[in-house]
Amino acid sequence: MRWRVGSGEKISIVGQPWLMDSHNPFITSNSKVLRKNKVCSLMVSDHRGWDEDILRDLFNEIDHMEHDTVYWSKESSGNYSVRSAYRMLRAQMNPWRQEDNASLWRKIWKIKAPPKILNFVWRSLTDCLPTLVILQRKNVYVESVCPVCSREEESIAHILVTCPLAKLCWQVFVHGYLSSRD
Ligand SMILES: [Zn+2]
Description:
It is built from eight helices and two strands. It is mainly α. Helix 7 crosses helix 8.
C-alpha cells in the first residue's frame, strides 16, 4: 500500500510510503524537523502546491492529488489485485533481477558462446521467455500447466531445469561432456 498525496494532513513525512519511487517510497532524509511533521507542512498554505523552496533539496519527483488516499502501486488503476501481488512476489523471488548480481552477469557475458545463446540465457534469467506462465501473466488466455509433463506450471525454471524432459536433456549433456573428457 502507498499513500497518494492530497492535502497531506494525514501523512507523516518520515516513515510512511508516499513517494512515487517504486523501489523506495520512503524519504531517506531523517532530520528532527521532518520527523515530527506531516506532508502538508511541505506545501504552500492553501494546500494547492508544494513549497518549492523546502522541497528543492529533498525530492526529485512529486505527485500532487486532491485528497490523501491509499492505493496499490502495482496496478495502474491503484486497486489491489491478487494477480499483481503474485507478480510482485515472483519478481522479488527472482534473484537475477537484482542489480547487485553485476559480477555474476559479467561472468555470464564472458562465456564463450554464440550471441544468440547468451541472449537466451539472459532472457531466461530475467523472466523474458514466452513460457505459459509468463503468457498468462501478460493476459494471454492459456493454461499454464506444462504440456510436456502436465505436472507443474510451465515456468522458465520448470521448462529449463525441473521438467523431466529438461532433466533428461541435462543428463545427456553432462554425460556427453564427461565422456568427451575421458
Ligand atoms: Zn514439464
